[in-house]
Amino acid sequence: LKKCEHERGEYLAGWQRAKADYINFQKSQERLVSDIQKFVLEDALVKILNVVDSFEQALKFQPEELKNSEWAKGVLQIKNQLDDFLKSRGVEAIKTLNEKFNPEFHEAIEAIISDAEEGMIVEEVQKGYALHGKVIRPARVKISK
User: Fold this and answer.
1) 143 lies in a domain?
2) What integer pLDDT is reported at residue 53 of this predicted model?
3) Which pick of 40, 41, 52, 116 has the fewest CB atoms within 10 Å?
4) 3-state SS string over the chain?
5) Residue 45's pLDDT band (boundaries 50, 70, 90)?
6) Which structural domain range is residue 125 located in?
7) In whole angstroms, what is the distance from residue 121 CA to residue 111 CA?
8) Is 121 within a domain?
9) Which CATH number covers residue 133?
C-alpha cells in the first residue's frame, strides 16, 4: 500500500509539473502571437503615415485656385478619414512646436539661431507619431541654439 501511495505521489507531482509546463507554454504562445500582431500593426501604420504625409504635402502646396474646389474638399476628406482611422487605432501625433527637445520623441535635423530658448523646437519638418505611447516615428524638428 505504501508503494502504491508513493507511486501515486510521484505520478501526481509529474502530472502537476506537466500541467504547469503546458500552462506556461500556452501563455508564452499567446505573448508571441500578441507581439507578432503588434509588430504587423505597427508596420502597417507606419506605411499609412507615409500616405498621410503625402496628403498633407498635396494640401500644403495646392494651387490657390483649387483651394475651394470639390477636388480639394475630397482630398481633405480622405486625409481626415485616414487621421480618424489612425486615432481609432491608438496613433497620436507627437507634440513639437514650442516644446523642449526630447530625444525620446524628437529627431533634431538642424539647430538654428532663434529668439527661442536654447533647445526649444522652432520648426517641425515631419510629424512624429506614437502608438499607445510608444514612438513609432520620431518627429523631425529644428531646434534653437
Assistant:
1) yes
2) 93
3) 40
4) CHHHHHHHHHHHHHHHHHHHHHHHHHHHHHHHHHHHHHHHHHHHHHHHHHHHHHHHHHHHCCCHHHCCCHHHHHHHHHHHHHHHHHHHCCEEECCCCCCECCCCCEEEEEEECCCCCCCEEEEEEECCEEECCEEEECEEEEEEC
5) very high
6) 92-145
7) 9
8) yes
9) 2.30.22.10
What is the per-residue pLDDT across 78-94, written as a single tens digit (0 to 9) for each? 999 999 999 999 999 99
Q: Which three cell numbers stand for residue 88?
A: 481609432
Q: State whether the Cα torsion 132-133-136-141 is positive or negative.
A: positive
The model's pLDDT over 10-31, given as tens digits with 9 standing for 90+, comes to 999 999 999 999 999 999 999 9
Q: Residue with C-alpha cell 481626415?
A: 80
The answer to whether residues 44 and 85 touch, using CB atoms and an 8 Å cutoff, is no
The reply to whether 27 falls in a domain is no
**Per-residue pLDDT at 8 exceeds 90:** yes
Residue 120: count other Cβ atoms within 10 Å of its Cβ: 17
Average pLDDT over the chain reads 93
The mean pLDDT value for 41-70 works out to 90
Cα separation, 71 vs 55, in Å, equals 13
Q: Report the residue count for the chain.
A: 145
Would 63 be classed as within a structural domain?
A: no
